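Researcher: Quick sanity check before group meeting.
Model: Go ahead. Protein one:
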Amino acid sequence: MGYNGGGNEKAQREGEKGMLRSRKEKQQGMELVILEQMVPENHLLRKIDRSIDFSFIGKLCAPLYSENVGRPAVDPEILFRMLFVGYLYGIRSERRLEEEVNYNFAYKWFCGLGITEKAPDATTISVNRARRFRDNHIAEKIFEEILRQAVEKKLVGGEILYTDSTHVKAKANKHRKTTVTIEKSPKAYMDELDAAIAADRESLGKKPFDRKDGGEPPTTQTQQSRNDPQSGQLHKEGKPDGFHYSEHRTVDSKNNIVVNVRITPANVNDVDPVPDILDDIEKRLGRLPAYMGVDAGYHNAPTCHQIAARGIQPVVGYRRHTHKGGRFGKYRFVYQRDRNVYLCPQKQELTWRTTNRSGYREYWSSSKVCGNCPYREQCISPSMTRRVVTRHVWQDDLEQADAFTKSYKGKRIYAWRKQTIERSFAEAKELHGLRFARMLGIRNMYEQSFLTAAVQNMKRIAKAFLSSRLLSVFEKTPCLLLKTWRLSTVWERRPPAAFPIFIE
């Protein structure tokens, strides 16, 4: 009886085993699969593909291909869609990008490949990018077209822009360097500044400075990388040592759309490319903004003058006054505009004596008065006989910018800076690989920055496209609760520029 029961149990186990498919059978089984159904409806790539028209890539690259010579080439739209995937998901290696596209159904769907179709080889991507696309500025043109589509969809306000810079580590060994002598490049505003200095000196009865048009240009010594000579050594307190590039980025306040990108070596001052940045903005948007927000690194008279001269209101971060040896700071001296003099804490006058080559007016005190002053030790050093206070010829523009920044409207605009430009940089570095340069040279750095900014704009456009669809649904519903939620949400997420009535 027990033996028969054991036989029945064994037969039962064998029957159950026969009803189940083994893992190998599942692996080798055949199924009808539709690639469209393998991509989730809420996938980021699906949102981007739905909201952005990429057909311009084929038209943009058509002159770079031959119609009747050689075998058919890989569609350039496929190549750039693969690059977009790499920049979107921080895939730095093009060989790894090829593998990811072959394995990921969403990537294949976005690139327009079939389930069994192989992605273009990594070498194909590299050769086309390096030989065919780079010299023709295709990356910049793609960035401009994505920006144009954002403007067309009314996602760019253009009233308030924020500009800042961040360092990008160059692909260079910081120990492989040499000391070189280079020419100092003149600043873009030097001609205008020289004219202002000459007018100032003539009003005082002094001769203008001789222009140094002839002779050898001024030079300076600097450290140059042997791996990437076009990068610059970073010299900033609290910043990493080594060779870097600086990315100067401008974003719009409405939806954090990147409107401009400019690359310089890291040893170039942040304020030097400001005139070129303003030119780029005007070219790409067709107009200049009403307000431009910058941090305290741009707090100087020439920068504020360059911005204000174009009809833009600068909103500049405040920089604290420095104190040397516990002596009276410059802020203790009051400027009287009508008389063009400074008054010291003892109400003694400092008169305008000269304007130096740097564009600063020098106001001197009387050595006799300073010699008998009870606060002499708190005002000047023992080796000096008088106090000298300087004032830039464009100081009025800086003071006007400071006054506006301290107003209610200026504070609202500047407070939004950390949620726009700072967030854009953080996203680019943490998610899209902008922390390190992928290739050597400033031209390659431009390509990386333009494509990074382009994919960030794609994400913003896709997000705004989805939000507009949801808001249109809320507008049609009669539910008061949903409309109240909509208004409160929009107010919390939009910058003050979207609601000018509240900041007047």
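Researcher: Fine. The other one?
Model: Protein two, sequence then structure:
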Amino acid sequence: MNSFTIALRSIKQRMLSSTLTMISMALGVTLVVGVLAIFGIVQQSFNANAMLGYNMVMGAKGGKLQLVLNSVYYLSEPIENIPYEYFLEFKPQDIREQEYSGSYSYKAVKHQQVARTTLLTSTFGVQSPLAAVAALASDTALQSQTDTLYPWKRSGKFAAFTDFAIPLCLGDYVGPYRVVGTTPDMFHLLRHGSTAEKTYEMQGKGRNIEQFSEDHGYFEAVIGSTVARDRNLSVGDTINPSHGSAEGDQHATKFTVVGILKPTGTPNDRAVFINMEGFYRMSDHAKPLENEDQFGTDQQADKIMDAHYVLPVEKREVTALLVRMDPLYSVGIENQVNEGNVAQAVFPIIEIRRLLDFFVSPVKTLLVVLTVLICFVSGVSILVSIYNSMNERRSEIAVLRALGASRRVVYFIVLMESMILSLMGGILGFISGHGLIAVCSGIIESHTGVQVGFFDLAPPMPLPIPILEAISSEFLIIPGLILLAILVGIIPASSAYKTDVSKSLGK
């Protein structure tokens, strides 16, 4: 019979006390696993989701963290909106002119040009060179006021430094889930995953939203996997967003689900994405303008507006912009934007790391310390359990010695018993810890947007040891348990080592 078998039999003989000791250890390990996994996964997810292919978020003046939580994680309420013109400052001239073709200012200028041409023609005649010269002189005078009268005649201020800018319009809900008005670029350009290299894919025969489709017009929606599961939605179903909050009045406008995202582990799993033009068509989504007549909105000018655009530029607003730009110029552009009175630019990864460093990490550290203390107390219970049993086991130890077992063997048997109790409690704690994670997964997702499951392991700890960079921090508990078992087992093992055979057998 080997040492392990003898130690295991001894544990079975004291089943009640051994079970209570293992449960005590399991409780401590459960809490350690829960804290490491939940906080670690949430922290890792927040860091990863702050870098989904863009490096800057732009929105209204206010709290920087609130802007990031609202536009990136859909956890906070919108601060305010910013004019659509800020979005166009990231666009080249051709796109700006296309966008501005549906603006009041564009129509007004076109109307002025028509009126001038008519006047000059009636004065000088259609074929007169003087008419052409006069028209050119008039246009040259107007061109000197480019920013006011011809904002589309130039590229945006930041266009040369920008890879893309994706607008977001927020404020509506489908049940508890946020509605995001955006463009098809949302899933064409953004990426996800730990390295932001994975493309967004649709389930089954689903597809991305289109700016305008023959089947559904402006009213198409793509929904996240969590939304589809919880709301029991499929491709072809329709949804009615609620205005302002989950309990708000439903819009009369219906959007047809044309795609369901495959699970991504990002906040986009918990959102509903609709055409931005469709978003603008819903009631109370247009920016009210004072003195609207100043934009020259007479019937003749209105005919010039491109039918593609639902609202003129002046009535459009966006909640936020997701921007990817050249890192060499990003700090300078951030400063330039923040110097203004309307908008602000932030780096989401910086704000999230500040949040984690100042709030989450200290709480995590405190909880880890408390749970380690619980494990230590559990280790002490192992010490007490084994040590108290020594008086009952002196005869057993004496018999082992009489049968040829050395003092070292007896010493090792007691240490083995301590390690078995510790490791069995640890295994039970691992299982119950991940069970706790699974039970709390719904609460965690509802408050953070992060999905955790039974089989999710805690990420590695940032330790300056290369071999530990790819190992879950949970696995560090195993050598910790073994070390704890050895430390608490030394005293009873030493007592067994010193057992006097003759006195014990004499009793």
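Researcher: One line on it for the slide.
Model: Residues 407-448 form the longest helix (42 residues).
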